[in-house]
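Listing S7. Sequence submitted for prediction.
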Amino acid sequence: MRKRSVAGASARAALAALALLPASAGLTQTVTQTVAQTVAPAASGLSPRHAREIARDAYVYAYPAVLMEIARRVMTNVERPEGLRSPMNQIAHARAFPDAAFTDLPRPTADTLLSRMHLDVSKEPMIVSLPDAGGRYYLLSLVDQWSEVFASRGRRTGTGAQTFAVVGPRWQGRLPSGVSAIRSPTAVAVLTGRIQVEGKGDLAAAHKFQGAIKAVPLGQYGRAYKPPKGRIDPQQDMSAPVEQVERMDAGAFFALFAEAMKENPPHPGDSPMLARLKRIGIEPGRAFALSAAPSEVRHALAAAPAEALKLIEAAFARSGTLANGWRSHLMAMGTYGTDYLQRAAMAYAGLGAATPDDTVFATAFADGNGQPLNGEAGYVLHFGKDQLPPVRALWSLTLYDTAQRLASNPTRRHVIGARDKLWFNDDGSLDLHIGPESPGSDKAANWLPAPGGPFTLTLRLYWPKPEVLKGTWVPPSLRPRDESVGSRALR
């Protein structure tokens, strides 16, 4: 594995062990312990220890907004839509599933076709038209610049044709008849569509549905509209956004954060945190230069990235409820309130994650015996007949390497799940085989290839049933592959 920059490499070495520990309020304590204090605006009175605490918490608070901005710059740095990249206010449709070369987003979804658009609604609304899905499952999420979901549309809310306008936080005006308004808390937002595909034979129909999704500025609504060419910045770093943020020094990070806040106001409940930020010279609407800060603040901010990134990565490894070796994320997904560490952790591992009503994901760092997952071993994930993932839509199991990318393998298979023709045992149970070598031709349909080293798994449940949301159903533990699996029958 290529060595990651800043704090990433050292923190990731302990992720599997951390994932097995109970969740602790200690990780979030530094973010929330002083938010209720009334503080003076001057930074000069801060002790070095207090300045360092505020700086670390400021980095955690700012991380999603900075990561969202870097991802926006990468994914809009094109003249025309291509793959999942497109100019601002233009939709890009992925016509195929991502592969191991995809680096734009951490832990990418590889079980549904994606459509994506970065919106700028600072000057006027964008009007989005969705066709009748004819019962096809899809999920469309709208995410603000702080990585929080503020609206969703899809099978759960109704798949009939509809038209709505995404309006900015300060926009006032009238919309055309029949167009409802969805107000974005920030001037910049992201629309992400996830569209179910029932095998290769369904691709053409899924592409047709994607092509019928339209987005135009309010001023062009009802007219023949040709989107303008995007402007390419040849100096833009096009590497993985998560890794770009890890490489940023404190000066660049906090300057970009201050710039992003000018058009993307903090949420109303963030006032206590904003009072703390003011003590180190960071205020919404004002530029920030590290060189102009008092010495104790400069030193504290310079130390913040390494300290905060360790907290963020560890928080992801310990997030959710631990059962059978899986961490299921049922709370604080998509909307986080003042749990800034959880928000940063989810941005780090799943930028733009949907809310649990729409999607629940469980992550495995270790097997049922507590041993970190490693391709040198083989695993079986056994679902009893009455223990199959309880969903109203679909479920999938995706394998990632330690850099949060789809792990390369000769078969190019990165995900397995409900859309596949799986072999079921005679008693109706299901065995999925995870390992570097095929378990044999009779089990190949149920094989998810693994790399020769460490990896992690994510089980995604789309439109989960109540037993998932209540926590009464949990994924079974991974067990050694050499245990008997019984005979199989295709279903």
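Caption to Listing S7: primary sequence and predicted structure tokens for the chain studied. The two ends are 38 Å apart (CA to CA). Residues 1-7, 9-18, 20-44, 484-491 have pLDDT under 50 and may be disordered.
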